[in-house]
Amino acid sequence: MSRPRCPGQDMRYWKPEDVFDVACPRCNTDIEFFKDEPALRCPSCRNEVRNPKIDLGCAKWCAFAAECLGESPDSQQARSLGERLIVKMKETFGSDQPRIDHALAVLEYAERIQQAEGGDPLVVKAAAILHDIGIHEAQRKHSSTAGTWQEIEGPPIARAILQEAGLDEDVIDHICRIVGSHHSAGDIDTLEFHIVWDADHLVNIPELHAEASREELSELVARVCKTGRGRALAQMLFLR
Prior knowledge:
By secondary structure, the chain is mostly helical. It has two domains: 1-69, no CATH class; 72-238, Hypothetical protein af1432. It has helices at 65-68, 73-93, 97-117, 121-130, 135-142, 147-164, 169-179, 191-208, 214-224, 228-238, and strands at residues 19-23, 30-34, 39-41, 48-50. The chain is globular and about 50 Å long.
C-alpha cells in the first residue's frame, strides 16, 4: 500500500537554498540535491553520494520516516530486485549501451520522484528498468522502434523476466501495464505509472526538444508532468 504524501515535502514553502549542488568525492561531478534526498548516485561514476545538508524535518517524528529515507523493508526488497533486473535488462540490450544508459537514467529520476511522492518502490524500480525492454523486439518484428510497437512487444518480455524473479502476479500485472503504456499513457492512472512517466520525460526532453524556447519548455513541463516532484525537477533542469 502506498503511504500518504508527506506534508513536510510541500515545495511551495521551500527556499532557494533547499536545492543545491554537492561535488562527488570520487570524480568531482556536481550532483543536484533537493534538501530531503538522503543519497543520490553520481551520473558520471555511479558512486553513491550522501546528502551532507539533509533536512530531516518531520522525519524526526513521522511514522513513515524510515520509508521516506529509503530504509523500509519494501525499499530494501526493491533495491535487491532492482539489482537483479538491471542484470537482465543489460543482458537483453546486449551491446546497446545508449539504451542501457537511458534505462539507468530513468531509474535514477524515478527513485528521486518516488522518495518524495510515495508509491510502491518495487513497482517503480522494476517498471523504470524495464520500460523500454521491448524496443529490440519491436525493431526486429516491425522494423520500427515507435512507441506503439514498444508497448506491444515490451510487456511479454517484462512478464517473463518478472516471473523468473518470483514476483506476485498482481505486481507483475501492474508493472507490465506501465511498460505497455509508457508512451501513450493507455488506460493506467496509478501513482507508480505517473512516476515512471515523469522520469522518462525528464530523460527524453533534452533530446526531443533541444531547440525549444524557454516558453515552449515551460508549457511542455506543465502539460506532461504528472507529479509534483517530477515537475519540480523539470523546472530545475530546463527552466532555471
